[in-house]
Write a structure and sequence with these properties.
By secondary structure, the protein is of the alpha+beta class. About 30% of the residues lie in helices and about 25% in strands. It has helices spanning about 30-40, 75-80, 90-100, 115-125, 165-180, 190-195, 205-215, and strands at about 1-5, 25, 45, 55, 60-65, 85-90, 130-135, 140-150, 150-160, 185-190, 200.
Length: about 230
């Protein structure tokens, strides 16, 4: 494990140096420059309020091909009957705030610290962080957010106040990313919910290859609400 000095520009070790749990480094800074540099190398921040900044690159890595999303018959109803409305980047701050506040099973507190929330909002304003939002009766009832670099999307967190609201946002996101030629969605750590939607695990070495392939494409920077009209 490496200890990083809090200076710009950031300097991360190679991801192969992560320990068996995926922890690569401790320290450094949490700001837009460091976060973007981390994602570009297959690294992401994940820590609790009382901890130092922790940087991770797990092996295996959970990834999703947008074209391979699984849509169950029960979920088709939500699309066919227009039960929900999808919006993109309409209220990023409310999405990340809800992800921070929502209660999760077997989890005390949240890893979305106030400092992390502040910096991802900065990334949204710079055009790198985006939210896919599920609305019902003019209320935000679910959604997710993440970072976009080149033609890769790095998912961070999701929330739901209505049954299947976050699934609706995730499936909708996959359809839109596929339409815009995105190579993969990074889901970081596997779980049953993501697996049911088609997420798979791959070796870290293969993930690094996908990341390198994605760098052949320009980043789609800015507000993504326009993608709904494309």
């Amino acid at each position: 494990m490496f200890f990083l000095l809090p200076f710009d520009p950031p300097s991360f070790p190679e991801i192969e140096n992560a320990n068996e749990d995926g922890l690569l480094a401790v320290g450094g800074l949490l700001n837009p420059t460091w976060i973007i540099e981390a994602y570009s190398k297959g690294i992401f921040p994940w820590f609790n309020e009382e901890q130092h900044i922790l940087w991770w690159s797990p092996n295996p890595r959970a990834v999703m091909s947008p074209s391979e999303v699984k849509i169950s018959k029960s979920m088709n109803v939500y699309f066919n009957q227009n039960i929900f409305e999808l919006k993109i980047d309409a209220d990023f701050e409310q999405v990340i705030s809800n992800c921070q506040k929502i209660k999760r099973k077997k989890q005390d507190g949240t890893w979305i610290t106030d400092n992390m929330l502040k910096n991802y909002i900065k990334l949204h304003k710079k055009g790198y962080a985006h939210s896919f939002e599920t609305w019902q009766n003019k209320k935000l009832v679910g959604g997710l957010y993440g970072i976009s670099l080149n033609n890769a999307f790095f998912g961070e967190s999701m929330f739901s106040y209505q049954t299947n609201a976050s699934k609706f946002a995730f499936i909708s996101m996959c359809k839109i990313l596929e339409k815009n030629n995105f190579l993969f969605i990074d889901c970081q750590m596997p779980n049953n919910h993501l697996s049911s939607l088609g997420c798979k695990t791959i070796p870290r070495k293969k993930f690094a290859q996908l990341l390198l392939e994605s760098k052949k494409y320009n980043s789609l920077i800015g507000n993504w609400s326009k993608l709904l009209q494309m």
